[in-house]
């Protein structure tokens, strides 16, 4: 296996670091539009299998050339979701395996955006799934932590614990704090704006997929391992599109523990039009307001040393357990920033995202996972994934009654 | 008198329109960096005394040339406060009378910005007041509505109603709404950010000038003429610097009826660094985040037809009245958007700002007001000003007990 990681940002760098401890691949190339970022990762790791390269992730031809020159067999897309389609298409044309952690972008319904769906996350990828299958090619989509590990945990619940699932509710919460900043998101603000201000999508077996208002249906959820209560609201996320394709559930939802302050910031950005990606003209140039918001905030990848706390990803599964009784269980994974900083010098959120595609690559390398077409994480057997996560990768997951 | 108005934005345009009904001057030139904006005003008014010109308000030489070529005797600065000093200095060197509605910018204290003052609004102008006096030249500073009419009203209270003033508290509030916008400030967001996020300055006769936290000391004040209760907070404003120089008061404060939503927006912009004027680099260019915020919002000068409601400027005066008893009176002026739109096609806030320098120019033209040096509105007799405002200019002011 020859791996090509596109993007030497927080998640790409963390994946390269985690993979460096494993022996399942021959070469790994990390590429970025800024070659110096990619070179820095390679120099730091000093792994003879590693090399750095330059790439324009918006250009299918640039990506195809790089796949050819590196001999890549597996491409991990670790750039922002605007670039999903050129990378996905390049992999198809080059005949290599594709993995991503965020899927192709959605388009809201033009008339009733908070009621009906138009184009969902990943729809552009699933639209060509039959072509991938016909060519015997594999795309593993949404294999970060959320989507990703959350989907693996839902599949585990179905296979091991439940007879019938009433509801899958993905819940993400944290108690992370960044010292010295009034406001410092621990994840890309560009992506956070995208997912939080788009209409959230819910799934209901009878109704199908439907849209609701951003930040709707707030609930206080008690996260495990000392994180405690966090207010969670509906947010657009890939799991709602992925899970119903392979898991038999009556309802699927995603809720994000944004907290009151973050919700207020996002609502204000939206009110002022600062979330927009359409350029405005000012002295100095024509710029996208959302890019300016991102440029004003500290780079999340650099915040690790100043961060404290834990982040939790997981899925609440409610339904009839194998013993015939009603059960409500939260399957989760917690990353502690102190641990991830000590281990890989990466902050908890990007590290927790990056570990999952590395495990998936290892399972693909030894043939434990295999398939054809465009497949979500829940399309594969969850047990070997979770065994590897807890075992060789040394990162525990858990279940609590909720 | 030959008038030169610098700036064909909302306030400059409104001043040109109001002045066009009056006979006290010979010529009026309106100049802007965008000549078409100035030409539009002149074409609309069709007043043979009027002409349009182009100017770079940041260049002292450009302004001096324009003063010379137009034969201006009086310059009204109607551009944003970043350009106060080049215009002020150009008028001194050209030997003409200067008027403005916002004064030179402040600089916060480097160590204890919310406790001590460093450079106050107007300090750079008052620093050379003796030179203006020596040359027999006059600068009338802060002669809009606030500062401006508020200072005139305070002077009136001292001269007519009070023996001893304990407190002058300028209070500004409105019930303006803009149809069809989630958020549409009725005044320049650039200036609003500047004044609302800088440390507010208070004056105490014993302590002198001192600074406090932005948005501090919230109070609900009931504004007259149907506007009703509005939450007001401490905001940096010129009156606090101006009034103690000519009016004998124990305390001076300025409070702005921003309302909860606007305060929240400003706090969020500050938290994210979007209030900053220091350029950030993004795809498209190096831009000032504050300029981008302004570019995302509708131009306040264009909102008049969609606006509804009234805006009130005034000063609460508390102390011992001429009859020896304690009195607490609010001297105020209200502008109704419907009235100002019908009269001059200008929205209420810019119209209420623009009427005052026109009245001041008329009082200077007929010699009712005269002086040498750098003088605030409260340095002149308030009675003829208020008589002209209510009489020939047809805009009533009032007093209520509060």
UniProtKB/TrEMBL annotation, chains A, B:
One Pfam family hit: Sacchrp_dh_NADP
Domain Saccharopine dehydrogenase NADP binding: 3-140
Highest taxon in the source lineage: Bacteria
Protein name: Saccharopine dehydrogenase, NADP-dependent
Organism per entry: Corynebacterium spheniscorum
Listed InterPro entries: NAD(P)-bd_dom_sf, Sacchrp_dh-like_C, Sacchrp_dh_NADP-bd
SUPFAM superfamilies: NAD(P)-binding Rossmann-fold domains
Signal peptide interval: none
All residue ranges annotated as the Saccharopine dehydrogenase-like C-terminal domain in the record: 144-392
